[in-house]
Amino acid sequence: MSGTDSTNVQVTEGNPREVYETLQEEAQRVLVGNDEAIEHLAIALLTRGHVLLEGVPGVAKTTIATIFARATGLDFRRIQMTPDVLPADITGTHIYRESTGEFALQKGPVFTNVVIADEINRATPKTQSALLEAMQERRVTIEGETLSLPDPFVVVATQNPLEMEGVFELPEAQRDRFQCKLQIDLPERDDERQILERFGPNPDLDVETIDQVVTVDALQSAREHVFDVHIADPVNEYILDVVEATRDHPSVEHGASPRATLAFANVTRARAAIHGREYVIPDDVKATAKPVLVHRLILNTDADLSDLTTDDVIEDILATLDAPSAEVAAGGE
After folding, report:
1. Mean pLDDT value across the chain
2. Which CA distances in Å does 54 have to 25, 31, 186, 195?
3. Which of 40, 100, 142, 176 is the most interior residue, by most CB within 10 Å?
């Protein structure tokens, strides 16, 4: 456990909606706005996914990740990624013990339930790649020895926009292993006023006040319920249409991978479950298309010259494709 106060646990049964709403309510004790971030972190936890949070410094990216980890009660470790961090600093290494005269394995911070990789794109590509095997296969290999990681295992990484100095773009293979990417923007004026009103008189109100509100058993059970959510054939076809359109779009050099297709379907299932439905509707697809696909598309030169973004491409695809009706989705059970 991460050290949160387990006496405040509210959810012991595995209802995905109750798990999500309880986590959201606890997060809102400290967090102002950013409901979408907590939603997708919950979705990732329930579908074995990983989340990338992007935004300028000071918009609470690390705070969001830490609040979520504490509310789940899972073990978590924060890794501050800098250019001098080495792969072994993440995965671990064998060190010599004078007392025994032998080498012993010292596990790295990746051996936890929730890894918070802070400012991941400040680390070199070689160090970033140390997370590849962990994120995909949930295991790491240290000097020829393969070790399994805890379950659940979620990487929540934060990064600064590429326009900032001292950052390295994540390799395509690394980006593809993140289930979703979320943009954490500067707060609206009303939200920022609420931040002033909430934290001005209460300087001690911070992530340390967040309690564990769900049990690990409830999380595991809720995860099983998510994969019982039904996706009717017309909705499956709609997902495939959206993915295929990313590959055929005239502004895209490389579209979404089959890994993205699987992530897309899982995310729609989880979104349906946490909103109390046993089947996926087209609105689930539309709501999750951008977080699932935005970091996976590589635009061509013409798009770059036209200042077109991946957000623009996804919006164009969703506006062009015909979606099935919600009635068709519900009736396909």
Report:
1. 90
2. 23, 17, 11, 20
3. 40
**CATH value at residue 311:** 1.10.8.80
Instruction: Check whether residue 183 and residue 252 sit in a common domain.
Output: no
Token code pair at residue 287: 């709501």
Give the list of residues 6+ apart from residue 99 with CB closer than 8 angstroms, or none: none
In sequence order, the 6+-apart residues with CB closer than 8 A to the CB of 246 are 252, 255, 256, 293, 296, 297, 313, 314, 317
- What is the domain range of residue 248? 227-331
Q: Is residue 222 part of a domain?
A: no
Per-residue pLDDT tens over the stretch 153-204: 999 999 988 666 678 888 888 899 999 999 999 888 998 888 888 877 776 6
Q: pLDDT higher for 328 or 207?
A: 207
Phi, psi (deg, nearest 5) at residue 55:
175, 165
Q: What are 27's two structure tokens?
A: 């997060």
> What distance in Å separates the CA atoms of residue 85 and residue 126, rounded to the nearest whole number?
10
Beta-carbon contacts of residue 150 (< 8 Å; ≥ 6 apart)? 75, 111, 112, 113
- For residues 186 and 281, membership in a common domain is answered with no
Both tokens assigned to 126: 């070689």
Secondary structure class of 276 (helix, strand, coil): coil
